[in-house]
Write a structure and sequence with these properties.
Layout lengths: L11 H6 L5 E6 L4 H14 L5 E7 L4 H11 L5 E5 L8 H19 L5 E4 L10 H8 L5 E3 L2 E3 L7 H23 L11 E4 H9 L13 H11 L4 E3 L12 E3 L5 H23 L4 H12 L1 H20 L1 H6 L4 H27 L1 H4 L2 H28 L21 H7 L5 H10 L6 H7 L5 H12 L3
Parallel strand pairs: 1-2, 1-4, 2-3, 5-8, 6-9
Antiparallel strand pairs: 4-7, 5-7
């Protein structure tokens, strides 16, 4: 099936017929005991792929998280714990490097070799088809990026709603255009599949370090360096055909302080460290994308000021009358550009979350200017302070929520999807041993197929 952007979706027969490469899922942790157990249990049951293991990075001074992972590992042999040699938190890149070393030790002890490395965070809902899609594309590409989308929240949650809008637009418009114009693909940090050999070639050029421990956005850095060494990259576009799109879903920060903390790290790593390490080299085409990624250093600071001037001019007639003639067409052109941008974002957001949610885009765009301005100020202050005192930039972990605690019960989902009548679900609950999951029990009773179970688990994860 060919999409309008030229991407051909593989059919079910192609996905099922492709040999399953062995996949290692890297999950770096720091104080995630409250969510990691739910994340592992849910994704282990939902993923429609057999040949994978999960390597979880923990710190020596985070006993609660280690205990949570050990509890799941005792029940599932696919879970392996990697201990970072230093107390945490250090950086995500440093934790990922420790996970890589643990994977090497596991390979040596079990005479196996992982061919694909996939990165995820503790708050991720992995789509059941993600690994099969990544595996299929790994025949031709060395980096495969599955879309990332925020889970839906109410209109009142402006901060999280901003993430919904931005990621919907970014994954629907910016990244596909970037790919078609030959720009390098920055990894989203999660849902990114890497060819093992390509990452090891990158590590050889960097003194054995697969990921840069000093970079606050090691995902962006890895995407750029892979492109620079000639690796092929692909972004799997969002697909809407009556089903939820194949994408990694998660809750992003829902409070202002947490959002500023996360975005200041993005600004520092992408704009400031990226400029410091790479300048504007690699030709005009890539310099353009560097500019796109770094223009927020100025734009984020000016946007709230411009919003304030617009409101002032709109409510005070004296400002309009005293303005120079040339300012009127400039203001008009600016207003048109803003409306076009707003319309594009609303269309992308509405496509994912519905038109009711999209009506809040104008307000969330103004709020986003405030959030991004505060984040840029914090990033500049942090970067300047580290340079002044000759200190290493501190990596700041963002707190997230995991949605499974609010999900409907599996039995309710099966009844709602008309896969089973309520009486059979109730009978299965009565006959189910305490140590067995309901879905597994229903399959043993031949009440549902594996495909129906995966569909129900996916619907359960999305909260539908």
């Amino acid at each position: 099936m060919w999409a309008r952007d030229g991407y051909r979706w593989p059919g079910e027969r192609e996905l099922s017929g492709e040999a399953e490469r062995r996949v290692a899922i890297f999950v770096p942790l720091w104080q995630e005991d409250g969510v990691i157990r739910q994340m592992l249990e849910h994704n282990l049951a939902a993923i429609r792929y057999r040949n994978f293991d999960v390597f979880v990075g923990v710190y020596p001074n985070d006993e609660a998280t280690r205990s949570a992972v050990e509890e799941v590992a005792a029940r599932d042999e696919r879970i392996h714990i990697a201990t970072v040699p230093r107390d945490g938190p250090t950086s995500k890149g440093d934790c990922l490097n420790a996970i890589y070393r643990r994977m090497l030790a596991y390979e040596a002890g079990h005479d196996v070799r992982f061919r694909v490395i996939l990165t995820h965070d503790a708050e991720d809902l992995i789509h059941p088809e993600s690994l099969r899609l990544i595996n299929w594309h790994m025949r031709e590409y060395q980096m495969v990026q599955v879309p990332v989308l925020a889970l839906a929240t109410g209109l009142r949650e402006l901060t999280h709603g901003l993430y919904c809008d931005e990621f919907a637009e970014y994954q629907s418009k910016d990244i596909p255009v970037r790919q078609r114009l030959g720009g390098f693909l920055p990894s989203n940090g999660v849902g990114t599949g890497f060819d093992r050999d390509a990452l090891e070639a990158l590590a050889d050029a960097r003194g054995g370090l697969m990921f840069d421990p000093a970079c606050l956005t090691e995902d962006y850095e890895t995407g750029y360096r892979l492109h620079a060494q000639g690796c092929r990259q692909i972004f799997v576009p969002l697909r809407f055909d009556g089903r939820p799109p194949v994408a990694t879903r998660e809750y992003f920060p829902r409070r202002l302080r947490a959002a500023v903390r996360q975005r200041s790290r993005w600004v520092t790593g992408i704009a400031l460290q990226g400029w410091q390490h790479h300048g504007w080299k690699w030709g005009t085409r890539q310099a353009y994308w560097f500019w796109r990624d770094r223009k927020g250093l100025v734009g984020n600071l000016l946007s709230p000021v411009v919003n304030g001037l617009f409101v002032w001019g709109a409510v005070d007639a004296r400002v309009r009358h005293q303005s120079a003639r040339w300012m009127v067409p400039v203001f008009a052109a600016t207003a048109v550009i803003t409306l076009v941008q707003m319309g594009c974002r609303a269309a992308a957001s509405g496509r994912v979350y519905g038109w009711r949610f999209a009506t809040g885009v104008p307000l969330r765009m103004v709020w986003g200017n405030v959030v991004n301005c505060l984040a840029t100020v914090a990033a500049l202050r942090q970067f300047a302070g580290a340079a002044l005192w000759r200190e290493r930039l501190a990596w700041r972990k963002t707190e997230h929520d995991y949605p499974v605690h609010a999900r409907p019960r599996l039995g309710e989902v099966l009844v709602r999807m008309r896969l089973l009548p309520a009486r059979e679900v109730e009978a299965a609950l009565r006959s189910k041993p305490a140590s067995r999951r309901l879905g597994e029990h229903l399959m043993l009773l031949e009440k549902i197929s594996a495909e129906h179970l995966h569909l129900a688990l996916s619907r359960q994860a999305s909260g539908d």
